[in-house]
Amino acid sequence: MSGASGDLRADVVVVGAGLAGLVAAAEAADAGRSVLLLDQEGEQNLGGQAFWSLGGLFLVDSPEQRRMGVKDNLELARQDWFGSAQFDRPEDRWPRAWAEAYLQFAAGEKRSWLRQMGHRVFPVVGWAERGDGTAGGHGNSVPRFHITWGTGPGVVEPFERRVRDHVAGGRIRFGFRHRVDGLVVEGGVAVGVHGSLLEPDPADRGRPTSRAVVGDFEARGSAVVVTSGGIGGDLELVRRSWPARLGTPPRRMVAGVPAHVDGRMLQITQAAGATVVNPDRMWHYVEGLRNWDPIWDDHGIRILPGPSSLWLDAEGNRLPAPYFPGFDTLGTLRHLRATGHDYSWFVLTQRIIEKEFALSGSEQNPDLTGKDIRLLLSRVKKGAAGPVEAFKQHGEDFVVAETLEELVAGMNRVGDDDVPPLDPARVRAVVEARDREMDNTFGKDAQVTAIHGARTYRGDKLIRVATPHKLLDRAAGPLIAVRLNILSRKTLGGLETDLDGRCLRADGTPFPGLWAAGEVAGFGGGGMMGYNALEGTFLGGCIFSGRVAGRAAAAAVAS
Ligand SMILES: Cc1cc2nc3c(=O)[nH]c(=O)nc-3n(C[C@H](O)[C@H](O)[C@H](O)COP(=O)(O)OP(=O)(O)OC[C@H]3O[C@@H](n4cnc5c(N)ncnc54)[C@H](O)[C@@H]3O)c2cc1C
User: Fold this and answer.
1) Closest ligand 1 atom, CA of 49?
2) Strand bridging mode 310-313 / 343-349
3) Is 219 near ligand 1, meaning CB less than 6 Å away?
4) How many Cβ atoms from other residues are within 10 Å of residue 332's Cβ?
5) Is 551 within 8 Å of 31 (Cβ atoms)?
6) Which end of the chain has a smaller Cβ tally under 10 Å, C or N?
7) 542 lines ligand 1 (CB under 6 A)
8) Tens of pLDDT, residues 70-115
9) 277, 493 in Cβ contact below 8 A?
10) pLDDT by residue (tens digit) across 456-477?
C-alpha cells in the first residue's frame, strides 16, 4: 500500500508543479538544496494553469511600451495598483508590502531576468482593464499587458527547462500522482506532508483525471513550500466563497480553469494552523463563452474584448458607463449580478469581431503559441482569426444575422426561458441611439468617446480597435450577438505570507518550516492585488513569489 515513504525525503518539499512550484523548485535547487516536487496530476500536466494561459505579463516602463509611445513609470503604476487594490483591512498589511515589492520587480528586474532565460514578448503592448474612469481609481492608465511570444507554454518553458536540468542532475525529484492530504507538523514545525497515491491516468493535459487511490505516502523535508493554486475549478466552492458585495453567486457559470484548481490544499494548510486571509476576494470574468470543443468540464473561454461592442444585460438594457468591454471586470460583474440574470450580451458587427475579439488561452492562439509568424500575419487580413471564426460557427452563445430583428429573434432563442424575451423595438432604439453618436469624432456617449480615445494609442489602432462605425452599417455586417457567461478564474486571497514567503500563524508569527507562493498565497502576502487586478499580474505574481519562497526556503535549510 505505502508509497516508499523512506525515499521521500529532501531538503525542500514543494506541493504543486504549476508555475509557482516550478520557479520555487528551480530556485531552491540552484541554491544547492535537494527538492521533491509533488503534484496530484501526471507529468503531462506540468506547468498547471500557466500552460493554458495567454502568457500576458504586467511590465512597467518596458522597451516595448516606449517603442509604442507609452510613457509609464513606477509612480503611475503604483497609483493604478493601489487605486485598484483598494486595501482597507488590517489583514492587508502583508498584501500591501507584497504589492510594493512586486511593483518594484515589474518596473525593474522582471523583464531582464526572464529575458536572460530566453523569454520574449510580442512587440505590441495590450491595454487590459482600462478602468473605472477615474485617475485614482481602478485600472491601467496605460497599456502594460505584454503577451509572451509562445503564450503560456513560453512562460513555463524556461522554468521547466531549469527543473528538468536539475532532475537530470539528481537534485530535483518529481512525485507525480502524489496528492497531498495533510501536513506533517511536529512540535509546531512543518516537517513534511502526507497523502494519497492516485492511480496513473494517461488523460491528455487539462482533462479531469481519476481520483482512485492506490496507496499512500509521507514525504519529509526541512522546508515545505505550498504552491497548489486557487479554487476556481470547484464552482461550488467559488459560490460558497462569493462575497455579498458582488451580489448573489451565479447559478450558471463556466469554468475558466481545469479541475485540479480545486482549493483543497488551501483548506488543508489552514487546518494545519496557517492563516488564510481575504478568501472573499476573487477575480471572475463576465465575458465567458461555453467552449464548443471543451477540454475540461464546463470549459469556458474568456473573450478579451476591444472596446466597441454594445453591451446589453439579459433584458436588453445597455450597461452604464464605465462598464464597457475590457474596462472594469468586477464593477461590471457587480452591476450584472444586480440584474438577477446569469448572462449578458455583446452586440457587434463582423468588422468589430475581426479586429477586437481575442480569446484568452494558449490553445486559442495557435499563431502566438506556435510562434508562427505567417499565421500571425493572417490576423491583419480580412476575416476573424481561425479560433474566433470557429466559435462563431459552432459556439452555442453566438447569433449571426443580417437584420437587427433577425438578430433579436436569435437572441431570444438562445436566452433563458425565465428571462423576459427581448423586445426588438427596444433593442433597435438602443442601437440607433448609439449609432447617432458615430457621426462625429466627439460627442456625449462615453463609450464612443472611449473608442476614439483608444485609437490614439498606436497599438489599439493597429490591431485592437475597429474603425468607428455604426452597428447598423450594412457594409460592416453581418450583425453578431454573443451571450456572455460568468467565468470562474482567479483567487485573489489566500495563505498569508511575509516578505520571505513564510506562512503565518493566527498571532502573526511565522509557521516554522512552511512557505507558500503563487495563487494559493494570493500571489504574495495573501492577496497582493487586493480587490481588483490589473491583468498580467498573476503569472508574474507566481514567478515573483515562487522565486522569493524558493530562495528563502533554501536559505533557511542551509542555516
Ligand atoms: C486560460 C487561462 C489564461 C490565463 N491567462 C493569464 C495571463 O495572460 N496572464 C496572467 O498573469 N495570468 C493568466 N492566467 C492565470 C495564471 O495562469 C494562474 O494564476 C497561474 O498559472 C497559477 O499558477 P500556480 O502555480 O499558483 O497554480 P496552478 O497552476 O494551479 O498549479 C498548482 C498545481 O498544484 C497541484 N495541486 C493542487 N493541490 C494539490 C495537492 N493537494 N497535492 C498535490 N498537488 C496539488 C495542481 O495539480 C497543480 O498542478 C490564466 C489562467 C488560465 C487558466
Assistant:
1) 29
2) antiparallel
3) no
4) 22
5) yes
6) C
7) yes
8) 999 999 999 999 999 999 999 999 999 999 999 999 999 999 999 9
9) yes
10) 999 999 999 999 999 999 999 9
